[in-house]
Amino acid sequence: MTIDDIIDQLGPRFAKWSLLHEALGTASTKQQEDFDRLHRDILSLTDNHIDTLKNECDAVQQQCQQTYKAILNMKRLMGEYIDDSPLDSEARPYSLTLDKLNAEKDIVQKHYEKRLADVHELYQRLEEYQDSLGPFVNTELIIRTNVDVSLPTVTALEEEIRRCENEYVGRAQQVDSGAEQVKQLWASLDVLPQSDLDHLLVEIHDSRHEPDKKVSLYATLVQDQQLDHIVQTIVQLEELKQQREFRKQEIAQHLYRLWDRLQVDADERDLFLQLNKGVTSAELQQYENELDRMLKLKSEKVQDFILDARNEMENLWNQLYFSQKERDAFALFESDAYNDTLLEEHENEIERLKHMVEDRKYILDKVERHMKLLQEIQDFEASTNDPKRLFGKGQRDPGRLLREEKFRKRVSRELPKSKRDLEGALREFETSTGTSFTVYGEPYLDRLMADDKNDQAADTQSQSQPPTTPKRFTKATIRPPMTSPRNRTHAKMNFRTPQYNRISNLQDSISETKKEWRRLDSQVSSTTSVLHRVRQNNIRKKDQSRTLKSSNKIIKGIKNMDTGTTDKQLQKDQQQKKRTSDRTSSSSGSTLVDKDYALNENTAPPNQTYRSPILKQRNRVPRSLSERHAQLFDEDDTTLDLGIFDDGPELSDMSDNEL
């Protein structure tokens, strides 16, 4: 129905309403008031309908906004990029928009709930680790409302779970190692578990091959409190073990000393040590019992021990060069009250003397060495004062004098060095201790200085006294040589004046040769190889041979034309050779040494003397190494078979041979 239809229906009704008022005779004012009331009722009814529709529209629009916000929130929690722009209010009709939004919300909610289930599983695992690891777990990642299921959040949860797993595994390993260590300490100390935690450690150690059972035990033992208790238990057991070991070692030291004093058999000692190797309470009690038994035996033989201690004390006094006053300082040495207290005092004094010997060892060795040298000198002087030691019948010793001389040399070498070392050690001792080192009550440094003064006085006195036996003048006897005469060779007759032409500086030539070889070796890379040079030499010889053949042909033709001229030339050449040979024979006689020169060898030969070819060869300028090296490849050198490098005959050679 349209508005026009409504108006058409209202027209007859208003006409009927007017007829009814006319029939009633209603006044016009009252009729107008009734009409106004009817109009207001119609408008009110229409407004009520409009308000109802408006409320419905607003409700649908608000529902669309809420659905849209829910979709945006879920997408945001899933980590998707969204546009924060509000929903378009012009998107009508609202019912259709609401249906679309609800459909989209259902799809987004399914994805969100799927991810939320995975996140809840991660939350559950973190809560399980929180029960075991306590504050180690980061619980801030667990969110109860508006759970973020985005990829970064899931990654952070997985990283936290992985960190907790590593910590859990590390603590589980600590529990295993702690249980193993506690079990070993209990076995070595013979201790039984006492607390509930100790029983749990025993149980987890026994179930090391049952993983499922160990997992349930780990949940309790990996907690911080339980781990601290395990560490504390290990520390207590180790302290107990260390105390027992110290006590055992202390008893063993007493036992070794008592065994040595009582001369216990070595097999008996080894058997006792082998049977009591551990640190259990029973084995420690065995050590205590053995010590008590040895002490009882010691008390029975305390007098013998005291006498042995006194003998050892006397040996230490002798090593320290104590005087009688220093020895009397230990008053208990003469005591007759033989008991354990007296023995203990003697042992303490022996320990003190041993420490003193150890501290003074560096100076005692030097004093002993010096005294030994002095005693050797005294014995030597006593033996050499007997003049009949070398001539006594039955006492002949051919090497005695040699040994005595060796002894004198050794003493003259070692005694000053020993004095220097000893003096330095004595002064160092005085500086460090503030007291002098005494030998039998006297400062040994004073004795050493007094001996030096006596030696200097004796040397001065021996130098001032004249010799008792004067020197006798004995005429020197001229004796012939004890060896056979030797054949003497006279000096060669040489020029005594400078003859530079006869000097061959061989050293300079050698040095130049070496330098030249080094220079050539350094230039090997830049010079041509031997094969190239030989090949070039062969090619050059071939060219010369061809030139020689052609010149021979020309010469043959000329000879045929001028035979007489060549005969005359040959005669001239023979005469020239004869004059040269005569000159050479005359010069050979002049090279001999003249009579004047033979009489006076200091006279140099005259300048006009003809030099022989040998001397000329000596005076030639030496060739450099490069020239000698090049001479190897001279054209006239036939020492090398250069034909092996030949490339074969050329066409020009073959044509010449055919001609």
UniProtKB/TrEMBL annotation:
Residues 549-568 have a biased composition (Low complexity). GO terms for biological process: mitotic spindle midzone assembly. Residues 385-415, 453-493, 534-623 are annotated as: Disordered. InterPro entries: MAP65_Ase1_PRC1. One of its GO terms (molecular function) is microtubule binding. GO terms for cellular component: cytoplasm; mitotic spindle midzone. It comes from the Eukaryota. Residues 386-415, 569-582 have a biased composition (Basic and acidic residues). Residues 457-466, 600-611 have a biased composition (Polar residues). This is Uncharacterized protein. It comes from Absidia glauca.
